[in-house]
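retry 2 of 3: previous attempt timed out while embedding N-acetyl-L-glutamyl 5-phosphate. Reduced batch size to 1 and resubmitted. Inputs unchanged:
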Amino acid sequence: MVAKIFIDGEAGTTGLQIRERLAGRRDLEVLSIAHDKRKDQDERKRLLNAADVAILCLPDDAARESVRLIENDTTRVIDASTAHRTAEGWAYGFAEMDIGQTGEIAKSRYVANPGCWPQGLIAAARPLVEARLLPGDYPLTYHGISGYSGGGRQMIEDYEAQGATPSQFMPYALTFQHKHLPEMALYAKLNRAPLFEPVVGNFAQGMSTALPIHTDMVADIPTGKDLHAALSDFYAAIPDSFVRVAPYDPSLAKTAALDPQAHNGTNTLTLHVFANDDLNQAVIAAVYDNLGKGASGAAVQNLNIMLGVNARESLAA
Ligand SMILES: NC(=O)C1=CN([C@@H]2O[C@H](COP(=O)(O)OP(=O)(O)OC[C@H]3O[C@@H](n4cnc5c(N)ncnc54)[C@H](OP(=O)(O)O)[C@@H]3O)[C@@H](O)[C@H]2O)C=CC1
Ligand SMILES: CC(=O)N[C@@H](CCC(=O)OP(=O)(O)O)C(=O)O
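retry 2 succeeded.
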């Protein structure tokens, strides 16, 4: 059977990248909306109800509206917006976060694609919390830098209109109420929200995040090797994982590996462990593409899981 896919918001940043990733797939038919009708409710409703899977690449309110427009009981939904990430009845579309999550996604009608920032935090913290190497109430700080495409069409236009002049490093969300905090705390199993300090940089795409840990604030003071082993064991057990753990070598200052653009165009997220056991300090870093594993790559991975297609064969790692 050829599955019918409708990307609501196909002309936006995330939608376009999903379209590119699906080009050439013979197991799918992409139902496209005429550009001048992309906000026409009747036309969207028709296509949403004609699709086997609708992928919503819209602002939150429009995504909620799309779900309301579905009148049948067959169209399955992947929502790339923030609207349903902690909502009842929705599976969280981060397949690697738990050994059973791929199965949850496979059987769900409604799948919420994760936010780009939460994936680096959840990938680093959740296995450590589960291994009791990080208490759920640890006062975490999470920071990182994202390319400006993370802000969608408007931010892309703003940056590109300014040519080469904008600053390289712009912190934001310093009211500490970023919309990603609820999903971060819930899926990383934290009962204390992290202090999150995001930065946007003067490059289009890619991100690099960091989770510092004072290991002497953790019972039994884990070494860098302990943290690395826990993460490596966790992801080795996840089938078809796009999350990798780089080899541990405390003698290397592997800064080149932390280039936010290192995984652009792929669906890979790489975790790196840095530690100085004498100082009881460690950092778990994550590098990935905000439009890859952070958005469109993850959406296609989820689509493949829902359709029972081998995700690895159809996605660049
Ligand atoms: N960019 C990223 O890195 C990530 C984005 N996301 C999320 O994915 C979603 C899409 O983001 P992104 O692609 O960046 O955003 P963009 O602004 O680039 O694209 C959104 C698209 O939706 C269209 N649109 C807006 N309102 C409506 C409506 N009422 N009905 C139909 N279409 C509408 C827009 O059209 P027009 O431009 O003409 O207004 C545009 O084509 C957002 O919820 C975002 O938060 C998630 C993870 C990462
Ligand atoms: C640089 C930048 O502005 N990034 C966006 C996150 C993009 C993303 O993950 O999208 P969702 O909004 O769907 O979660 C932000 O911090 O709000």
